[in-house]
Write a structure and sequence with these properties.
alpha+beta, six-stranded mixed β-sheet, three-stranded antiparallel β-sheet, 2 helices, 11 strands, 17% helix, globular
Length: 175
């Protein structure tokens, strides 16, 4: 009987470990048109203007002129208003008509918007939690494509705020 319980406990632990690993975000990927890529979390940066983006949930996207610095270089994000997650990448050359995709947990279609990258300077691409209905737990994925060529792919795991209290507390009152 003890050996049966041991086997059941071992199997249960193994399944829990596999489930925990399945929720982990994949390592960031960058295509051959990108020379550097960093993923991270920060308090919502200053949006300087908006651009129409009819294939997104809000119908627009915010534009951040100055490339922000990540407060935390990690792929786990607390579901907290005022929190932003994203990536900074450096293109090898100008990129026209970049298709930016945001895959939310359990969504049937990604949010999509297009942008041009006119120089080889660092570029910020992210998502900010501005509204309570955006706080979806699970794995989010940001991708960039130029035609059929992948520029970047980064996953983030959005978790309950109490799982990352120091990160959640950092942006409280700063947005």
């Amino acid at each position: 009987m003890r050996s049966v319980l041991f086997v059941l406990a071992t199997l249960s632990f193994g399944m829990l470990s596999a489930a925990a690993l399945a929720a982990q975000p994949a390592a960031p990927e960058m295509g051959n048109r990108v020379t550097a890529l960093t993923a991270g979390v920060l308090c919502t940066p200053r949006v300087t203007e908006r651009a129409e983006a009819p294939d997104t949930t809000l119908g627009f996207t915010g534009i951040v002129t100055d490339t922000p610095k990540f407060t935390f270089e990690q792929q786990q994000v607390p579901a907290t208003l005022g929190m932003t997650f994203g990536l900074i990448y450096t293109p090898k050359f100008a990129l026209i008509n970049v298709r930016n995709l945001t895959y939310r947990p359990n969504a049937t279609e990604p949010d999509v918007f297009y942008s041009d990258v006119l120089d080889r300077a660092d570029r910020f691409r992210g998502f900010s939690f501005d509204y309570a209905n955006e706080l979806a737990l699970g794995v989010w994925r940001l991708e960039g494509w130029q035609g059929d060529v992948m520029l970047y792919r980064v996953e983030f795991e959005v978790v309950a705020p109490e799982k990352l209290p120091e990160v959640s507390a950092y942006c409280m009152g700063m947005s």
